[in-house]
Design brief:
By secondary structure, the protein is mainly α. The chain has one domain: Glycosyltransferase (Alpha/alpha barrel). It has 10 helices and 11 strands. The strands form 5 sheets. A 3-stranded antiparallel beta sheet has the order 1-2-3, covered by helices on one side. Helix 3 packs antiparallel against helix 4, helix 3 packs parallel to helix 5 and helix 8 packs across helix 9.
């Protein structure tokens, strides 16, 4: 379509620029700035305390993309500073990393998130990045912005924040579009779990607040709503996970920071989908062009492989001579 052959490129200081067939120009996704910033933070050694919640290993991180080459602590600082520089407040004073581009999402008006929209996942995930930056570089601005994001994430959507309810329990909404009524918001599962970790990190760092316990209780009481047999659901609007997010959903529940034995029955079934995605994705995965492409490719590979084997066996078969009198 005239664009590059890569999903993402990086500036010299580590800021990711994304490309997609849906958009003609490159763009910066706030989530991926935070995501890669957390990876760059591995370079901070002197002030790292791995017993602190905000430094604890995210065991699901390996299922997300990694930056190319060797990263540096300067890239970590650049990412954290990018968050500081791009925080904006809404009319109610809530701090957000706004997304300034539309994004397709079939269950919202017009089949998209309309800019400017925000994400409770991104805002909460950024808290962890900023707390690590505070440890490494000492600037109080990092903690100040983390505090603003913490308050914003836990403000109800009706007042410009990211907090909703799911079956009476608090839930952090990943996709907040002010056009969408609260009851029709997506309630994405992985978004809630990653956001929970940001809230937990802040409350343990500052030794204040009690919302993390309530969010964890919500996860324990609602995770079964995302069960789809041998597969998982992405949200509460009817979306089924693709292969990537099915793997992520499975692994975020196995993470030691959140694991509970009540997950075991579901994990044992979901593990089958993780181990045999090629067979179960065509039946359990979401309806999409990608799924159609997957099925067609699978059939073509099967047919071509069968013909190839048939041809090889035919060539290896000893020639038969026919005697004519």
């Amino acid at each position: 379509m005239g664009g590059p052959a890569t999903i993402r490129e990086f500036s010299p200081d580590g800021i990711p620029y994304s490309y997609t067939a849906r958009m003609r120009e490159r763009f910066i996704s706030p989530f991926y700035v935070v995501h890669y910033g957390l990876i760059y933070s591995d370079n901070c050694i002197s002030n790292k305390n791995e017993s602190s919640y905000h430094w604890r290993l995210d065991s699901s991180r390996k299922y997300w993309p990694f930056p190319p080459g060797v990263s540096s602590i300067d890239q970590f600082r650049t990412s954290a500073d990018w968050v500081i520089d791009n925080i904006k407040s809404d009319k109610s004073g809530n701090a957000h990393l706004f997304y300034d581009f539309d994004w397709p999402y079939q269950f919202y008006p017009g089949g998209k998130l309309e800019a400017p929209w925000w994400s409770g996942l991104t805002d909460a995930h950024a808290i962890t990045l900023l707390l690590r930056a505070k440890d490494c570089f000492g600037d109080e601005a990092y903690l100040s912005v983390a505090t603003a994001l913490y308050r914003s994430v836990l403000t109800p959507v009706s007042r410009g924040g990211s907090l909703v309810l799911l079956d009476g329990y608090p839930w952090i909404e990943e996709y907040v579009d002010s056009r969408v009524p609260e009851e029709k918001l997506s309630r994405v599962f992985n978004g809630m779990v990653y956001a929970y970790h940001g809230i937990r990190a802040y409350e343990e760092y500052t030794k204040s607040g009690d919302m993390a316990d309530k969010l964890l209780e919500s996860i324990y009481n609602n995770f079964s709503k995302y069960d789809a047999g041998y597969w998982t659901r992405y949200d509460q609007n009817g979306s089924i996970t693709n292969i990537k997010y099915n793997t992520i959903t499975y692994n975020i529940l196995k993470d030691s920071r959140i694991y509970n034995e009540i997950f075991d029955e579901y994990l044992s079934r979901w593990k089958i989908g993780i181990e045999f995605p090629g067979f179960l994705y065509p039946w359990c995965g979401p309806k999409s062009i990608a799924k159609t492409h997957f099925i067609v490719t699978f059939i073509m590979v099967f047919v071509i492989s069968t013909l190839f084997v048939y041809l090889v066996l035919g060539l290896l078969r000893p020639a038969r001579c026919i005697r004519r009198d």
